[in-house]
Amino acid sequence: MTERQGIIHREPEIRKGTAMPTALLVIAQDTFRDEEYTHPKDVLERRGARVVTASVEAGPARGRFGLAATADVALIDVDAGEYDSVVFVGGGGAEGFFDDPIAHDLAREIHRAGKPLAAICIAPSILARAGLLAGVRATAFESREADLRVHGAIWTGEPVEVDGSIITAYGPQAAYEFGEAVADALHLPR
Prior knowledge:
Blueprint: E1 2-4, E2 7-9, E3 22-26, E4 30-32, H1 34-46, E5 50-55, E6 59-63, E7 68-71, E8 73-74, E9 85-88, H2 101-112, E10 117-120, H3 124-129, E11 137-138, H4 145-150, E12 154-155, E13 160-163, E14 166-169, H5 175-185
Parallel strand pairs: 3-5, 3-9, 4-6, 5-8, 9-10, 10-14, 11-12
Antiparallel strand pairs: 1-2, 6-7, 13-14
Helix pairs in contact: 1-5
């Protein structure tokens, strides 16, 4: 901060020595949806974000169709302050996070900070059950409509829905568009 002629000028903050935004993708240890992980990851990396993967435990994770991924960090060890966005990936294994207090706390902290918070397929139920979708336009895989509505979401059924800092998507067919919406929310260049 400098002061010239009575005007205070604040220097832009650079996050921990890097201007590259960091996105955290949260996947189930087993049975995450392959393309709902790879497509947003590819989009975010192509547009300039650093992507870190989290799961219940650090180490190997397996997608529904056999994709081998590596979780860089255990969810319990995630420091929300280190990330500019959090993305919850769908697939059957994401159900394990529906009522997970660690996942809920992470989602709430990211949301409180006004950072992009995203979920695709069945994963928007994580946000709904964390109390973050009440009065929010949202979408998800059709099997989650009743759950989102019961938690106060305004169901749209659109492929991708952006309401403030919350981004939700229907499923694998929308995975690229979902990734682009997250990248746009991070103000990454096209």
